[in-house]
Design brief:
It comes from Propionicimonas paludicola. By secondary structure, the protein is mostly helical. It folds into two domains: 1-92, Rna Polymerase Sigma Factor, Chain: A (Orthogonal Bundle), CATH 1.10.1740; 118-177, Arc Repressor Mutant, subunit A (Orthogonal Bundle), CATH 1.10.10. It is 68% helix and 0% strand.
Length: 195
């Protein structure tokens, strides 16, 4: 968040119900929270975002802390709403991914190149191979730039558990993408002949 030194005044005004203050908080938080919700498969990310801000409004009188703590708190609420969204979706019958893929293929023109949405879908498919906790940790750490401590608060795990999740997620992605640590050959690379 980039409100900076004005944060205490903005927060105080928001607590008093000032529309301009909530507008500023929304402009700063909403894009990142919405990306977080969408990347984690919320059935209706915009609806979840609305629920997050509704809870922020209701619970603001209980909040104490600085701008970083507020941002962490907002993402913690977002994760709770995301889990609620997953639970609601599990109770509804859905379409299989094969049905969705087949329908999308029928609409795709011949010879079309990958669009940004297709690229996002490819990234989502790769991330889908991770556990929900691993995916959450990677997105919070690398996309939203949260510290280990803040990420641990958001996902309700210890800092050590977050480090382990991050390590395992990165290892899994390297395996999936076929890349290794610098200096190590890729699994498909030919072995050098002994001299």
């Amino acid at each position: 968040m980039a409100i900076g030194g004005r944060f205490p005044q903005v927060l105080s005004a928001a607590a008093e119900g000032a529309d301009w203050a909530w507008g500023e908080l929304y402009r700063e938080l909403a894009p990142g929270v919405l990306r977080f919700l969408a990347a984690h498969g919320a059935a209706d990310p915009e609806d979840c975002l609305g629920e997050v801000f509704l809870q922020l409004v209701r619970q603001l009188p209980k909040f104490t802390g600085d701008e970083a703590a507020f941002r962490t708190w907002a993402f913690t609420i977002a994760r709770s709403r995301l889990i609620d969204s997953w639970r609601r979706e599990q109770r509804r019958p859905g379409r299989s991914s094969e049905d969705v893929t087949a329908a999308a293929d029928k609409l795709r023109p011949e010879g079309a190149t990958d669009s940004p949405s297709e690229q996002q879908a490819a990234v989502a498919e790769i991330l889908a191979g991770l556990s929900p906790d691993q995916r959450a940790v990677l997105l919070l750490r690398y996309v939203h730039q949260f510290s280990i401590e803040e990420t641990a608060q958001i996902v309700a795990k210890s800092e050590g558990a977050v480090r382990v999740l991050q390590h395992r997620a990165l290892r899994s992605l390297r395996r999936t993408l076929g890349t290794q640590h610098p200096g190590q050959p890729a699994p498909w690379a030919p072995q050098s002949a002994a001299v």
